[in-house]
Specification:
3 domains, transmembrane helix, EPS_sugar_tfrase, Exopolysaccharide biosynthesis polyprenyl glycosylphosphotransferase, 6-stranded mixed sheet, Rossmann fold, phosphotransferase activity, for other substituted phosphate groups, transmembrane, globular, alpha/beta, about 500 residues, two-stranded antiparallel ribbon, about 45% helix
C-alpha cells in the first residue's frame, strides 16, 4: 500500500519468476559528465523489462482467471460443465479488464491507481455476468457473480502485489529504473532528485537536468545534486531525442509559461518520453484533480476535500464493522497481553489518555500500558533528552518503558485497545495521528487541518516511518491524507500497516 507524496509515473512491476538479471537495463552514465548524458544513443521506447512485465501481468491474470473459471464450471455446473456460464464469465472478464484499462502501461505500477483500476475492471466483470444471465435467461448466475468473480479478485490482487514486490527489490538495487530528464528551477529539481533517491521503488532515476540558464544551483555549477545539467529549457526537446529518456519531469520555475510548455509538448511528440508536469500551485493529488476544457482553455479543476457524503458513510460503516470483527479475532491476544502486563509489575493494564479528535473535540484514548505507573511525572525530568520532532516527546531508549512494554511498542500491540475507540466512533481505522491537547495548542494553521477528520489507528505516518519521521514530514503526510482521502488509499494503508508492524520499522 506506496503512498507518501511522490512523483507520478507510468512504471511497470516485475513478477517473481522472471529472471530480472537477464533483462537489459538502461545504459549507466557518468553523473559528472554532461557530454556522456547528451551523446547517449537513443534507447527503444520501452525497455525489455517493461514489455516483458506487462506480458507477464496479462498472462498471469488470464491464466489465474481461466483456471478458476474452469474449476468452478466443474464444481458448480457438474451436470453440464461446458454451458455458457463459464464462457460468459471468461468473456466478461476479458472485456471488463480491457475496457477499464487494467492492463494499460499507464496504470501498471501507479500505486493505489493500479489496484483501483483493477478493482473497477473486476466490478465491471461481475456486472456483465449478471446482466448476461438476465439477457440470455441463464438465471443461475448467482454463484458466478458472488463467489467466482470475488475469488478471482482475491487471487488477482495478491498476484499483482507479488509481482510488484519483486520489482521493488530490483529497484532498490538500482535496476529496472526509468531514465528521467528533469526541467525547472535548480531548487525544485533538487527536491525531485531527493525524492526519487529516497523512494527508489517509484522507478525514476533522474539522469539529466535542464534549467533556464543551463547552470546548476550554484553560479557556474554544472550539476544539481550530483546530476549533470545538460542544457537550457529551450534545448530540452533535443536532449530528449538524443538521450532516449522515458520521462520528462517539469518542475516549478518562473520561466515556464503556457506557450513554452505547449511547444515542449509538441516537440516531444513521436519520442519515447512521457511529459509529467508537477502541480505548481499546491500539493494536491489523487481523485481531487480533474482536467477539463472551459472556453477553449485547459483547466485543472481541484475539487473540495470530501469530509461528508456517501463515501464517508461507507468509511464509517467499514470502521465500525471492521473494528468489531478485529476485536473478536484478537480477543485471545488482548487477554494474553493483559495478563503479561499484570504479572510484570502488578500495575493497571489499560492506560487512558486525553486526545484530540475531529473538530477539536477531546476523547479518552485507550492503550495497553507500556510504561511505569508514574511515567507522566517522570516526563518533566526527561525533557532535556527529548528526541521527538516538533511538539512531540520521544526517546529511543526511554527509561520509563517496562520490559513487556518494549515488546508491545515494537510491534504496536499496545495500540490494539484503540479498536474500542474505533467501534465507539471516536476514531477511524485509518486517519491522522491522534494528537495530545498540548500538541494542538502549538499547531500552526496548516497543521490544524488534521483535525477536520477523525484520527486513525493507523495512517500514512504509520507506514512511512512512524517515529523516524520529522515533524514537517509527519504533518505533510497527514495533510495529504486529509486532502486526498479515498477508500482505495485506506485499503493500501491498512495493508502496508500490517507489513510495517511485522517489521517493527520506526517504532520506539
Amino acid at each position: 500500500m506506496e503512498e507518501s507524496v511522490r512523483p507520478s509515473s507510468t512504471v511497470n512491476g516485475t513478477p517473481q519468476h522472471i529472471d530480472l538479471q537477464s533483462i537489459p537495463l538502461p545504459p549507466q552514465r557518468d553523473a559528472g559528465s554532461a557530454a556522456a548524458v547528451d551523446n547517449t544513443s537513443a534507447r527503444p521506447p520501452y525497455a525489455a523489462w517493461e514489455s516483458r512485465y506487462r506480458a507477464w501481468v496479462i498472462g498471469s491474470d488470464v491464466f489465474t482467471a481461466f483456471a478458476l473459471i474452469v474449476m468452478s464450471a466443474f464444481l458448480i455446473d457438474r451436470s453440464d460443465p461446458h454451458d455458457m456460464h463459464a464462457l460468459g464469465t471468461a468473456a466478461a472478464f476479458l472485456f471488463g479488464l480491457s475496457v477499464c484499462r487494467a492492463w494499460s502501461p499507464r496504470v501498471l505500477g501507479e500505486g493505489a491507481e493500479e489496484y483501483r483500476t483493477l478493482g473497477r475492471g473486476l466490478v465491471a466483470t461481475a456486472v456483465l455476468v449478471a446482466l448476461g444471465g438476465l439477457l440470455f435467461g441463464a438465471l443461475a448466475v448467482q454463484p458466478w457473480v458472488f463467489i467466482v468473480v470475488p475469488m478471482i479478485s482475491v487471487f488477482m490482487f495478491l498476484q499483482r502485489y507479488a509481482l510488484r514486490q519483486v520489482l521493488h527489490r530490483r529497484r532498490r538495487l538500482g535496476e529496472c529504473l526509468l531514465p528521467v530528464l528533469a526541467a525547472g528551477s535548480p531548487d525544485t529539481v533538487a527536491d525531485l532528485i531527493a525524492r526519487t533517491k529516497a523512494d527508489p521503488h517509484v522507478g525514476w532515476r533522474v539522469e539529466a537536468v535542464c534549467t533556464y540558464s543551463g547552470a546548476g544551483a550554484e553560479r557556474g555549477s554544472g550539476e544539481v545534486e550530483g546530476v549533470p545539467v545538460v542544457g537550457k529549457l529551450d534545448e530540452l526537446a533535443g536532449h530528449v531525442r538524443r538521450g532516449g529518456y522515458r520521462v520528462v519531469a517539469v518542475t516549478a520555475d518562473q520561466h515556464w509559461n503556457p506557450k513554452r510548455l505547449q511547444r515542449l509538448a509538441w516537440d516531444l511528440e513521436g519520442t519515447s518520453a512521457e511529459m509529467v508536469v508537477a502541480p505548481m500551485l499546491m500539493e494536491v493529488a489523487g481523485p481531487r484533480l480533474n482536467v477539463s476544457g472551459v472556453l477553449g482553455m485547459p483547466l485543472l479543476r481541484v475539487s473540495a476535500p470530501m469530509f461528508t457524503g456517501g463515501r464517508r458513510l461507507v468509511k464509517e460503516v467499514l470502521d465500525r464493522f471492521g473494528s468489531a470483527l478485529l476485536l473478536t479475532l484478537v480477543s485471545p491476544v488482548l487477554l494474553a497481553i493483559a495478563v503479561a502486563i499484570k504479572l510484570d509489575d502488578r500495575g493497571p493494564v489499560i492506560y487512558r489518555q486525553r486526545r484530540v479528535g475531529r473538530d477539536g473535540h477531546t476523547f479518552t484514548m485507550l492503550k495497553f500500558r507500556t510504561m511505569v505507573t508514574n511515567a507522566d511525572k517522570l516526563k518533566q525530568d526527561l525533557q532535556s533528552e527529548n528526541e521527538g520532532a516538533g511538539p512531540l516527546f520521544k526517546m529511543r531508549k526511554d527509561p520509563r518503558i517496562t520490559r513487556v512494554g518494549g515488546m508491545l511498542r515494537r510491534y504496536s500491540l499496545d495500540e490494539l485497545p484503540q479498536l474500542f475507540n474505533v467501534a465507539s466512533g471516536r476514531m477511524s481505522l485509518v486517519g491522522p495521528r491522534p494528537p495530545l491537547p498540548e500538541e494542538t495548542a502549538k499547531y500552526a494553521p496548516d497543521a490544524r487541518r488534521r483535525l477536520l477528520v477523525k484520527p486513525g489507528l493507523t495512517g500514512l505516518w504509520q507506514v512511512s516511518g512512524r517515529s523516524d519521521l520529522s515533524w514537517a514530514e509527519s504533518v505533510r503526510l497527514d495533510l495529504r491524507y486529509v486532502e486526498d482521502w479515498s477508500l482505495a488509499l485506506d485499503l493500501v494503508i491498512l495493508w502496508k500497516t500490517f507489513r510495517a508492524v511485522v517489521q517493527g520499522r520506526g517504532a520506539y
